Structures are given as structure tokens and as C-alpha cells.
Amino acid sequence: MNPRISLAGVAKRFGARTVLRDVSLEVAAGESLVIIGGSGTGKSVMLKSILGLLRIDGGDILIDGASVRGLRGGALARHQARFGMLFQGGALFDSLPVWANVAFAVPGRSADRRAAAIDNLARVGLGAEVADLRPAELSGGMQKRVALARAIAVRPAILFFDEPTTGLDPIMADIINSLIRRLVSEDEITAITITHDMTSARKIADRVAMLYQGEIIWQGPVAAIDRSGNPFVDQFVAGRAEGPIAMAVRRA
Amino acid sequence: MTAIVEAVAHALIAIGAVVLGVFGSIGRLAGFAVVALRRMVTPPFYPLRLAEQMLVIGWFSLPVVGLTALFTGSALAQQIFIGGSRFNAASTVPAVTVIGIVRELGPVLGGLMVAGRVASAMAAEIGTMRVTEQIDALATLRTDPFRYLVAPRLLAAVLTLPLLVLVSNALGVMGGWLLATFRLGFNSSAYLATTVRYLKADDIVSSLVKAAVFGFIIALMGCFHGYYSQGGAAGVGRATTNAVVSAFILILLSNLVITVVVFGS
Lengths: 252, 265
Fold this sequence. Notes:
The complex is a heterodimer.
Chain A: E1 5-14, E2 17-27, E3 32-36, H1 43-51, E4 58-63, E5 66-67, H2 73-80, E6 83-86, H3 98-102, H4 110-123, H5 140-152, E7 158-162, H6 170-187, E8 190-195, H7 198-204, E9 207-212, E10 215-221, H8 231-238
Chain B: H1 2-41, H2 47-57, H3 62-85, H4 93-131, H5 134-140, H6 145-182, H7 188-198, H8 201-227, H9 232-263
Helix pairs in contact in B: 1-6, 2-6, 3-4, 3-6, 4-6, 4-7, 4-8, 4-9, 6-7, 6-8, 8-9
């Protein structure tokens, strides 16, 4: 059976700087893959390349066997419509109330869209009383949950999570992790999460891959992360300053 | 000798980089404008976004554009009176004022005032959306950022600037009339009759054409610089400044071109 997402030798450069060198990776339908790696290793660039927001310079990306390379106009829009994404900062639209953010891509009359928004807010543990608030009136954790509600509102087949727990307290982070795990398990969504947070990775992942200097240097089941046999992975998982990973200074 | 060759080579590389950068920017702007124009005339449309932008660009710019025209019309009448008096031509105040306001000052000053107010706001809003990933979010929410953000702004600016300039022209002429009748001793009805006699349809048409072109330039510069802003708050600040400066320069340049083409012969 074809994997749902397949990356083969993907390369991406910004000017003279190579961010992705030779990324090869497969994600099965209904699987939750977590990508770990330090800042500036190209994790967000990889997700945006799969979405078609960035054009890759080498290799290929296949979704259910169909190539993403060269997609434009309507074909690119249809490709992007299969995804939902939780952005690192939430990326909520400041000028719209919470309900309009959540129902942004939901078609139909205003009353139906509002009802759909309130249903989706309930799925992430938020009540109808937040529906008419503006994003700026919400705490960071609530904004993340609203962004999650927006990402799942159109029932995407594939969900991406970019640093879903960054900036959250441990309890709120665990709430978000549990929500993501439940969505992936109950709705059989294929998910890719990028994170630095190993607690989050252990809770969300079926499988973990590590990106370092633009390449996948290790991948395996989440249960094998503590006995990977890879010194780079060991250093990252243990959070040690000493080890083979030289900290990147520039942001990818 | 080697040092001289190296210095020349470095200078040529630097010049080449600047030239490539300029042509690259022109090409990117042209591509942006073509895509934006195509999205402006093909569905889906966002009429509520268009109405919102028409309100922001047209209605909320009315006070600043109106006051600018009123004060400039008065000052222009005063200057023409002083200058004309030197060769016994003070009676030309109404004719020269109306021609000056309608052909040049109404559209140009109106365009510059709106550029200062609107191009900066567009660049700041779209730039902030870019650096906070809201534009990427639009793409994942089945919405084309060009159709949702750029096309309504372009269309709204092209439609509302001519209306604003019509009001600006009227207020500019009124400013001249107020000063001439209350301070310079002109007869009110004679002033207005002369104004109407010297105002031609071509003057009004050229004024409206200029306004529509300026509207397109203002929205294009605001959207373009905002859309490609990067580097956080500092990047948004740069985009805002670049949007206003480039809109000002392009408005003045296109005004010269239109004036030469329409009135040069």
C-alpha cells in the first residue's frame, strides 16, 4: 500500500543556504509522526514544502502517490484543501471574532457556520462563551485551542502541528497533547508534528524522526527513542549541552 | 596591478548585484501586479471585503483629502493673485485656480494624502499577517490570499480614488472662491461664472483617470511591500516605509507621464 505522505530526496535552498539537503520520509495513513530537531534545522520548511507553500529545489513529495511538484492554481488549492495546520503562533485572524476564525473555511450560511464553529470549539474543550471574543482577548493556551479547532473544522485528512506546545505551561501543554492524540486516534487523521518538546513527542507520536542539518538522521517507533543508538538523538532526547550536535546560530 | 584588477572586479560585481536586484524587484512587482489583476476580475469575489476597503480608503480619507484641497485651493488663489498683480492679470485667479486644482493639485495631493494614509496601513496589516503566518494560514483554509487580501484592496482603491478626487476638486475650487471673495474682493457670481467657463470636460476626465491610476499604484505598493515583508517587526516597519515612498514616487512619475500624454500636444 502506498504511504499517504512520501518525501524522496527533498532539497530546499534559500539563496546560497541549503536548508533541506536530502530528506526522505514516509508517513502511513492514520499514523502520527513527530519530527524532532533543533532550531534552524528546517522542520517548518519541510512542512511548508509539503503544503506547497514553498517550492522545493530537488527530489519529490507525493501525497497518496501524486506529486506536489509544479502544482499551481486550482490544482495547488485542491492539494492544500486536504490539509489542516496548527501554526506555531496560532495565526488567528485578529480582525475576526473567534467563531469566524474557526468557521473560516466552512461553507454555508452565517448561522450554520457559527453553529459549526461552536461544535468545533467544544471538541477542543472551549465553551460557546468564547465565540464572540477577539483572539487578542484570549490567553496563549486558549488561542492554541481555537487554532486547533480551526484546523479540524473542515475535517482534513492530514493535520500538521508546528510546535503545538511552545510557550504553554505544562498543564496546558498536556491538554493540547491529549487533544492532538485523541483527534489522531478517533478521526484516523494522518499527522505530522514538529516539536522540541520530548514530553509532547512521547505523547503524540506513533513514530519519531530526527532532522539534523537538512537530513533525516534517524527514524523509528516512539518506544525506541531511548535506545536509538544514535548519539545525535541521544543528546537531543537527553537535552545535554555536550555532544555531537553543534547548535545552529542562524534561523532556517 | 593585481590589486587594481581586483578592485575593478569587486566594483563590477557590486554594480551587477545592484542591477540584478533592481530588475529582480521590477520583475517580481510586475508578476505580482499581473496575478492581482487576474484575481481582481475572476471569481470568487469577496464583496464584503470590497465594501469594507471602500469604506476604509474612501470614506475615512475624506477629511484629510478634503481639508488638504480646501487649504491648497485658498493658498493657490492667493499666490495667483499676488503673481498676476505684477503684470495686471489678477483677474485670472478663478481660471488658473480651477485649472490648477482639477488638472494637477486635486488628484496629485489627494493621491499623496491617501498614499500616506492607506499604503502604509495596507503594508502594515498585510506585513503583520505575513510575519505571523496568517497568510500561510489562509492558503491552508481554502482561501487564495490574492483574492482575499489583494484584489479587494486594488479594486476598492481604483473605484474610490476618482470619487475622492471629485470631492477634492470641488473643495479646492471652493477654497479659492472663499479666499477670493472674502479677502481679495472678487465678485462671488462672477468668480463662479469664470470658473465654470474655463473648466473643460477634458480637465475632469484627466483628473479622474489620474485618480484611478494613483489608486491602483497606492494599493499595489501597499499590498506588494506588505506581502513580501520579512524579518519581524523591523521588516514590517521597512515594508511600510517602502510602500509609502514608492507610492509617492510612482504617483508623481505617472502624473508627469499622463500630463505629458494628455496635455503635451
